[in-house]
Amino acid sequence: FRELYPDYTMTAAVLGKLGVPPDFESTGDVRYTHRHEPNRDIYFVANRSGEALSAKCSFRVSGLRPELWNPVTGRQRALPEFLQAGGRTTIPLQFAPCQSYFIVFRKGPTALPHGRNFTVVRRVEVISGPWQVSFDPKWGGPGQATFEKLEDWTRRPESGIRFYSGQATYRKTFAVGPNVEAEHSRWYLDLGRVEVMARVKLNGRGLGVVWCAPWRVAIPPGLLRIGDNHLEITVANLWCNRLIRDSGLPPGQRLTWTTYNPFKPAAPLLPSGLIGPVRLETGE
Predict the structure, then answer these.
(1) Cα 159 to the chain's mean position, in Å?
(2) CATH topology of domain 123-283
(3) Which residues, including other chains, have CB under 8 Å from residue 182's CB and lie 6 or more apart?
(4) Which residues, at least 6 apart from 14, have a Cβ–Cβ distance to it below 8 Å?
(5) For the chain, which residues make up each domain, given as ranges?
(6) Contact 81, 117 (CB under 8 A)
(7) What are the pLDDT digits (tens) for 20-55?
(8) Beta bridge pairs of residue 30
């Protein structure tokens, strides 16, 4: 196939010679696709790398207001920072690892919105150990365990944790100083790295589920207390590690059942758990 069509640069070069300006350009490695409708233009832009990315993206659209539609949360918001010139709209965008957006251009209100396209997040505190972690004994877990620091389950010495598949709940009480809440109003919990998804509660209130980067949840105003705050993070991993363990056990000792187990006892374990670091952050 590549002998017939090496890559898109050949097409772009031909279009350039014909005087057709690029539909999309970016200062970073961002891929896109574009749909045009009578009253709006819809671009899907994606950071395909495993690293965070900041890029200026230029779209062949003018006279319309840009909006960001988040495909994960379903939220839509205006993008106040943009420049329109020469029949193009240039927008500074920030991507988490492997993150994508819909950028939608359509007619908007006469008054321009104020502010930034993205919240400027500042780290306030790393929530360090020890953490109290509960595992389900029915799935081979040890019940209760203490993690002096956050780490991959597969690096633990206990076989009940190393090969564990299921849910485990991390609990931690951390303190907030008296001047913190008065200084800022927008707060976040960044979980660092999670394998593979997590549900977060703070002071008994659910903050949502995260399953991809950015591993961050917003804290509603007034929920963060001066003094002690109680954090609970329930993490679920894949069941591969338990299948790997069961592949080397007699049938009567296995905890899982499947019509076919593709794993062998020496198969590499998949990273699991809350790996962190967990950070308390504020945004402006």
Answers:
(1) 29
(2) Jelly Rolls (2.60.120)
(3) none
(4) none
(5) 23-118, 123-283
(6) yes
(7) 889 999 999 999 999 999 999 999 999 999 999 999
(8) 47
